[in-house]
Every structure is written in C-alpha cells, then in structure tokens.
Amino acid sequence: MAEAPQEEGGPVRFMKQHIALDYRVHVSPLAARFGEQLRGGQIVGSRCPRCGLVYVPTRAFCPMCTVAMGKQDETPLPDRGTVTSFTILTPIQYHGQKEREDYALASILIDGADGTVGQQRLCEIPLDEVRTGMRVEAVWAPEDERTGEPGDRGYGFGDALRGWRPTGEPDVPADAYAEHVL
C-alpha cells in the first residue's frame, strides 16, 4: 500500500479540544403528561382496551392490536417491581464525567405492567447482591426536585425517580418473569 503524501512541514498533527453541544429534547404531549404524573408521584401505564396489556410509559396505541389508547385507558401502577435483568457498569473516565464508582442498571417489571422498563438505576444495595428476581421499590426524588421531562435523558422517568432499592420481600421465582428477560 502506498504511503499517504505528507504535507510540507512534517507528519500529521493532532490537537486536543473540548467540544460541547447544547440541545433540547422536545417530548410529545403524551410523554409530557406522563412526566406530569411522575412529578406528582404516580407511575401510570396504558391498558389496551382490547387485549388488556399494560404499557409503561404510556402509549398512544397498543402495538399488538393497533388500537388507539388515550386518557381513558390510563391505569395507575404501584412503584414496586421485579428485576428481570441487570448489568454492572464501570464508568470510563473522560472530561466532565461525574460517575466515579461502579453502579448497576436493571430492567424492572413494574407490578401490573406487561413489559419492562430498562436502564433503571439500582441503589442502596451492594453490587455483589444484585440479582434477577429481586423485588424493588422506587426511590422518589423530593417533589421540589422533580423538574425534568420524561424524555430528557432519564430513560422514561426523567428526574422523578432516583432509582430502585430492594424491598426485602422474597425473590420472585424465575418462571414468573422468564418471558421478560432480555
């Protein structure tokens, strides 16, 4: 392979520079309503009027039945669930990185829902004790700190939830959530 020609003055030079992007995520009216409900301390799902499946966050239609869903199909859900899968992350350090310690993210099957909510932070538990089947409850941010929209990089829950902690209840048997494992 032929060598690339070099510019006069020597080899290619690299320089370091910091680049920042400011942007705003605009959420749909449905996501904005979901965010309002979260700011009020309530997790709400949408129950399909035809098949009965419950989706969290709320949706405008059932993807299985292609039936439209609206406010009349909203159903409040408890802030408890089951860990169906998880991963332990080790933050890679880069300029501006705030995470320093390993942490766990999980998929949570919220009680009464038919699908999991992914990328949920697990807290108040040593990482070597995190497991599938573990029962968890939401750790809500104080009301005056629930300011964000659900689509603003909070993986569906905005800043309303700090994470999920163990409830101390017995683990759920694997066959009870097997169809929800990713």
Describe this entry's structure for a reader:
By secondary structure, this protein is mainly beta. It has one domain. It contains one helix and eight strands; from the N terminus they run H-E-E-E-E-E-E-E-E. It has one helix at about 30-40, and strands at about 45, 55, 75, 80-90, 105-110, 115-120, 135-140, 160-165. The strands form two sheets. Strands 6-5-4-7-8 form a five-stranded antiparallel β-sheet, with no helix packed on it. It has a three-stranded antiparallel β-sheet with strand order 2-1-3, covered by helices on one side.
Write the layout of secondary structure elements.
Blueprint: H1 29-39, E1 43-47, E2 54-55, E3 74-77, E4 80-89, E5 103-110, E6 116-122, E7 135-140, E8 161-166
Antiparallel strand pairs: 1-2, 1-3, 4-5, 4-7, 5-6, 7-8
**Strand and helix order:** HEEEEEEEE
Rounded mean pLDDT score: 88
Largest sheet: 5 strands, antiparallel
**Unreliable stretches:** none
Structural class based on helices, strands and sheet pairing: mainly beta
Distance between the termini: 45 Å
- Estimate the strand proportion: 25-35%
Secondary structure tally: strands: 8
Label the overall shape: globular
Task: Tell me the radius of gyration.
Answer: 21 Å
Number of helices: 1
The helicity comes to under 10%
What's the structural domain tally? 1
**What topology, given as strand order, has the largest sheet?**
6-5-4-7-8
Short description:
This protein has one helix spanning 29-39, and strands spanning 43-47, 54-55, 74-77, 80-89, 103-110, 116-122, 135-140, 161-166. A hairpin with a 5-residue loop joins strand 5 and strand 6. With 182 residues, it is mainly β.
